[in-house]
């Protein structure tokens, strides 16, 4: 009987220690996800974003009623913004810019998704509070998707897209010329 009580007490203590040592919290937002073709919206859907924190890693998980639209997740180490993990690929931070809205500064990080595949090069515009705001296809030179959760994210998206400093890739950037032959 003492051995059984000892095992139960030890198991409960161990589980309590493990669960209390994991600094895990989750916050969820609901908003709108817009997909674009040639700079025109062709699909709008409701999206749910859950931001969870486990020790030093933030995970942003997105889901929608139509999984083809938005069923992805990102991870970022909270202490550093240098890498955004998406689709099992580490995307490097390539630029940062702070946008001022009503006296508050919002840091936007720009990450580059680039693998050896053709036509997948994408810039992701990301904010720690709201997650992904914009994806821009570098292969097709156009806006790919936006995610709005409230009036603040709408303002941020508008400011990013209207940015003329080179932080945002404009639809007016022509594709590179074809290679010269001989």
Helix-strand topology string: HEEEEEEEEEEH
Number of strands: 10
- End-to-end separation: 88 Å
Q: With helices defined by DSSP (H or I, 4 residues minimum), what is the helix count?
A: 2
Strand content: over 45%
The portion of residues assigned to helices is 10-25%
Q: Are there runs of 5+ residues with pLDDT below 50, and where?
A: 6-23, 170-176
What is the 3D shape? globular
Spatial strand order of the main sheet: 1-2-3-4-5-6-7-8-9-10
Overview of the molecule:
With 182 residues, the protein is an alpha+beta fold. It has helices at residues 2-21, 151-162, and strands at residues 24-37, 40-54, 57-64, 73-77, 83-86, 89-101, 104-113, 122-127, 131-137, 142-148. A ten-stranded antiparallel barrel has the order 1-2-3-4-5-6-7-8-9-10. The longest helix has 20 residues, at 2-21. The radius of gyration is 21 Å and the shape is globular. It starts with a helix and ends in a 20-residue tail after the last helix.
């Amino acid at each position: 009987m003492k051995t059984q009580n000892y095992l139960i007490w030890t198991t409960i203590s161990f589980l309590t220690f493990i669960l209390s040592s994991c600094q895990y919290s989750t916050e969820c937002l609901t908003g709108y996800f817009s997909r674009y073709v040639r700079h025109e919206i062709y699909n709008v859907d409701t999206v749910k974003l859950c931001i969870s924190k486990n020790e030093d890693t933030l995970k942003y998980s997105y889901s929608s009623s139509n999984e083809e639209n938005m069923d992805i997740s990102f991870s970022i180490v909270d202490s550093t913004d240098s890498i955004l993990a998406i689709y099992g690929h580490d995307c490097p931070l390539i630029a940062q810019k702070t946008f001022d809205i009503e006296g508050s500064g919002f840091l936007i990080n720009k990450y580059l998704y680039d693998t050896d595949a053709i036509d997948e090069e994408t810039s992701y515009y990301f904010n720690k509070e709201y997650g992904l705001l914009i994806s821009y296809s570098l292969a097709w030179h156009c806006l790919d998707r936006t995610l709005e959760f409230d009036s603040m994210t709408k303002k941020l998206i508008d400011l990013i897209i209207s940015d003329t400093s080179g932080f945002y890739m404009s639809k007016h950037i022509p594709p590179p010329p074809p290679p010269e032959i001989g």
